[in-house]
Write a structure and sequence with these properties.
By secondary structure, the protein is α/β, with parallel strands linked by helices. Helices cover 33% and strands 21% of the residues. 36% of the residues are buried. One of its GO terms (molecular function) is ATP hydrolysis activity.
Length: 316
């Protein structure tokens, strides 16, 4: 069962450089959330702050009643046991084979026998499709396999919160699609709380229950997937629909001349909201809502063609 993460007025700077300020949101227990934002907006910094690797300048991160931004080191050590983390490059130990990489957290943080460790490791490697690759070194396998090995390692302690730092980076679209399905299925099986940092718009539009967007040193918006995918907020609309017209430019913000040149341009219509990706077994996850429910509850008319599927069952 996942746990809730309450983030309040979180602010982080490096020297005089403000990364983001007054970030406030609640990551719901057991749901899948995606955090988006242009490059350099501090998405990975946010993940590192949530697990206590970085201390915020102010604000709080409360998990099960403990504020990890100000708690003693011994309490932080215990809270970290609730987390599993998939780093961008997998963060494998290059001199260890995949089996020992995945077993590492169990040997460090539990008193399990080697027989018990083996049972858990093989279960998680089977879960991510790596049975038969246990003896391979990280340098002998593809980037996609390293991602899956990193995910197996993140899951061996049965975490209640799993953080994914750009899990799709360096992967081709097909592998990204397989990884997204694996994430959906794992959430359905574990009911853990998932927070994914990504730049992949297709992932953001089809996988999560909630979406957040970091922009211009603040949290521009956070809420249910349908809320953001139907939003007319310029920065949200531009980013989630990969449009050139809007406040985001090559250097994050467009200058006055660029914005003036866009005045009077007609924005393309919002694309249809796709169906949310479902678990392989077809049984809805706990955090999954019926298609269009948020729009109906809030009196929002979704873009034409929303929540439809083709004969092949692929959302359009």
């Amino acid at each position: 069962m996942g746990v809730e993460i309450q983030i309040d007025q979180l602010t982080k700077s490096f020297g005089k450089q403000l990364i983001w300020g007054d970030v406030t949101l609640t990551v719901p227990a057991g749901e899948i959330c995606v955090m988006l934002g242009p490059s350099g907006t501090g998405k990975s910094v946010l993940l590192k702050t949530l697990i206590g690797l970085l201390k915020p300048d102010k604000g709080s991160v409360v998990i099960e009643g403990t504020d990890i931004a100000s708690c003693p080191e011994k309490d932080l050590y215990e809270i970290r046991k609730l987390f599993g983390v998939l780093f961008q490059d997998g963060a494998m130990f290059g001199s260890m084979n995949l089996y020992d990489n995945v077993a590492f957290p169990l040997r460090e943080h539990t008193r399990k026998t080697e027989s018990e460790v083996r049972d858990v490791v093989m279960e998680k490697m089977d879960l991510v499709g790596l049975i038969g690759a246990e003896d391979k070194l990280p340098g002998e396998i593809s980037g996609g396999m390293r991602k899956r090995a990193g995910l197996a390692r993140a899951l061996v302690l049965d975490p209640q919160i799993v953080l994914f730092d750009e899990p799709d980076s360096g992967l081709d679209p097909v592998r990204t699609s397989f990884l997204n399905q694996l994430i959906i299925d794992l959430n359905a099986q574990t009911d853990a709380t998932f927070l994914i940092v990504t730049h992949d718009i297709n992932t953001a539009r089809t996988v999560p229950d909630n979406i957040g967007l970091l922009y211009h040193k603040h949290l521009a918006m956070f809420g249910p997937r349908e809320m953001l995918l139907s939003s007319e907020e310029p920065v949200v609309r531009q980013f989630l629909n990969a449009q050139r017209v809007g406040p985001i430019g090559m250097s994050e913000e467009k200058d006055a001349d660029e914005l003036a040149a866009e005045q009077g341009q007609d924005l393309p219509p919002l694309p249809p909201i796709p169906l949310q990706q479902e678990p392989s077994n077809g049984i809805p996850r706990r955090g999954q809502r019926p298609p269009g429910e948020w729009c109906r509850e809030n009196g929002v008319t979704p873009p034409d063609g929303s929540f439809e599927s083709t004969n092949a069952g692929i959302a359009v």
